[in-house]
Amino acid sequence: MEQDRFQLFPILLSVAMVITISVLTLLFVSTLFIPAWQEFLNIDNPWYCSLFILFLCPLIGLVRLPVAIRFNGIQGSANMLSTIVPLAILAYTYPSSHINWSPFTYVPGALSLILYWICSVPSEKGAYLYRISIPIGTISSILIIQAFIGSNLQAFLWIAFASQFIPLLLVETIRTSQSTKLYHEDDQFILGGKGAHDPLWVAPSFAVFLTYSTHLLFWSLKAPPFG
Description:
Blueprint: H1 2-41, H2 46-60, E1 64-71, E2 74-79, H3 80-97, H4 107-118, E3 120-123, E4 126-129, H5 133-149, H6 153-179, E5 189-191, H7 199-219
Parallel strand pairs: 2-5
Antiparallel strand pairs: 1-2, 3-4
Helix pairs in contact: 1-2, 1-7, 3-6, 3-7, 4-5, 4-6, 5-6, 5-7, 6-7
């Protein structure tokens, strides 16, 4: 009987951990992650937004499109989610962002370009980016944008997304072209080949979430601690 109790305890503990993690994940998705994308994409219905971000986007990440360019004689393709979809999102959300362009608006993107270039290398598997650079680049961009954009959340989200995606697209394209020198004749390059796990999708998505979270927790207050 005592032995059965010892065997039952790990099972109950595992079930409790699974339930706890599931509840925390649901709270995170429902209170911060999906509302951030709703605000960015101007989608009122949270279920439509959830369907797009949580289900449709991973499926799009399985699609590879052939590209006309060749690097060092190597033909390749581009992952649809991490190359085409972000560009479509930027084009779709730009009219509602109402950005007041100035020379300072380009600073976050320029600094991200420098950071991601330094933190990336060509490899036999394509462009490689050190992942620690993503939170560093995102947080730095958000602080800079806040200094120049202020509380215009739509403009904030658009610039945060663009300042991560566009520099990364340039860096990954160049690093991929350099990587093809290490390829065999039958190899093919893939831009954004990891789909939903590729920095081209992870970095701008993280920027949207972090921008919304910081705005909600700090800058939307009557007396924000960071200006």
